[in-house]
Amino acid sequence: MQKIFLPLNLAAVLLCPTFAYAQNEAQNPGRISTQTSMQNTETMRPVSDTLTIKTAIATAMTKNADIAAARREIDATDGALRQAGIIPNPELSTLFEDARQESRSTTIQINQAIELGGKRSARITASERSRDAARNELAIKQAEIRAQVTAYFYDALIAQERQRIALASLELARRASTAVSKQVTLGKVPPLEETKARIAESSIRVELAQASGELILSRKRLGAMWGANLSDALVLLGDFSGELSGLPQLPSMPNLLKGMEQAPLMLRAKMEVSKRLALADLERARQIPDLTLSLGSKRDQSTGPQAGRNQAIVGLSIPLALFDRNQGNLQEARSRVDKARDELSATEIRLQSELLQAHQRLSLARDETQLLQKDLLPGAQQAFDTALKGFEYGKFNFLDVLDAQRSLLQAKAQYLRSLSEVHRAASDIERLLGDSEFNLYTTTSS
Questions:
Q1: Segment 4-49, tens digit of pLDDT
Q2: Exposed e or buried b for every residue in 229-249, given b needs 16+ CB within 10 A?
Q3: How large is the average pLDDT for residues 312-316?
Q4: What is the distance between the alpha carbons of residues 161 and 195, in angstroms, rounded to a whole number?
Q5: d(Cα 441, Cα 257) in Å, to the nearest integer?
Q6: Cβ–Cβ under 8 Å, residues 269 and 348
Q7: Running DSSP on this structure, what letter comes out for residue 376?
Q8: What dihedral angle (degrees, nearest 10) is formed by the CA atoms of 371, 374, 380, 383?
Q9: 269 forms bridges with which residues in the sheet?
């Protein structure tokens, strides 16, 4: 038996770096470390070829097109507010009576509209509500972009880790297939063993292809948040022993519901009610007709005793609100106030429901991740170590090692998926609450 497995033992010696990686993970069963690959990468690449979550968020906040558009809208509402406070321009008019020079009279006058009913102050108030709404839209957009960048960053980071693990596993499987092939050539193992080794290698190649494809897509999604194409050489920092495995905290649901009152989405609905009330006040003020004051001079150019005389003209005019009393616009404005109030109630219900769902998702994902860290990963790691030691002593076939390794890879893949769901649920909560007091990556669970 020892003679049969001697060549495979030599193959195991050749694979010491890969096995050392596995044994290193056995000492830290709940952690998937990227320290070795990061150290190798840092010796080959400049610091500029790395990206952290903080850098990604900061870049998106300054370069994202949607955020830039929201800032432009604030500038536009500032202009509308400025215009709302301006009084109407005066009107200059000239009137010629009679086309004959000897009997013509010329009238020149200035007409100034005087707004009544508080129209100017109502316009200013409505414009202020629009500006407040635009600023809140910027906060909403920033919260959405921050949540998306967080989710996409961790998706890319997890895909990068999957690819690294798959590469290490493929190297192990490739060398194992070569060793088994040599044994088949020597007639010491049946050809079926070589087929099994090739199948195991192909399975890992599929996993590598999937991980590489997901990494490419996740990089594109992340770079699209600020209109850039991330280089394939870019390394995402945030190893699994630190930033990524430091799970977001789970606040209590009562605290989340309390913070919901100041959430940007709730403020948007409340501001919409205030804006509609201001517009209704403006339409109500427009029911009062404006007064027009006229001042001018009339010169009589006819011949006779009155020739060349100038006459002062003072006049007042006001529309008679007999038919158009702005009643239709006022009715529309009042109906939109009622609509805004209904939307406020709907937003509160929807936001509460989404918070409950995101809180539940985060709770379940955290529990699953911690269970994998404490039970499944250590068990799979121990099984792999046992198979590896048995192979080294000639008690197990190398395919048993590959089976144990495949089980370990599946456990790690499940762990990575759980991590991804944890960070997605946390980013959804932060998106809903916006720049509130809740920072799930720093706060303490209640």
A1: 333 334 334 333 434 343 334 434 443 433 333 333 333 333 344 8
A2: ebeeebbbbbbbeeebbebbb
A3: 91
A4: 29
A5: 19
A6: yes
A7: I
A8: -140
A9: none
What residue type is assigned to position 130 of the chain? S
List, in sequence order, every residue forming a beta bridge with 111; answer none if it has no partner: 91, 294
* Closest to 157 in 3D by CA, of 236, 230, 221: 236
Among 410, 422, 409, which Cα is nearest to 363's? 422
| Residue of 63, 48, 39 lying closest to 234 (CA atoms) | 48
Write down the pTM of the prediction.
0.73
Report the share of the chain in percent with pLDDT over 70.
81
CATH code of 2-63+115-287+326-433, in short, is 1.20.1600.10
Tell me the two tokens of residue 379.
């068990």
Side-chain half-sphere exposure of 240, counting CA atoms within 13 A: 25
Buried-state track 392-402, b at ≥16 Cβ within 10 A, e below 16: beeebbbbbbb
Distance CA 277, CA 3 (A): 91
Q: For residue 108, what are the β-bridge partners?
A: 94, 297
Pair of tokens at residue 369:
């991740």
CB contact at 8 A, 429 and 390: no
Task: Give the bridge partners for 317, in sequence order.
Answer: 292
What whole-number distance in Å separates Cα of residue 435 and Cα of residue 442?
A: 14
Which of 141, 150, 117 minimizes the C-alpha distance to 285? Answer: 117
Q: Exposed, middle or buried by CB within 10 Å (0-12, 13-18, 19+), for 169?
A: buried
Closest among 219, 296, 261, 300 to 51, alpha carbons compared: 219
pLDDT tens digits for range 169-204: 788 777 777 777 877 787 776 787 778 778 877 888
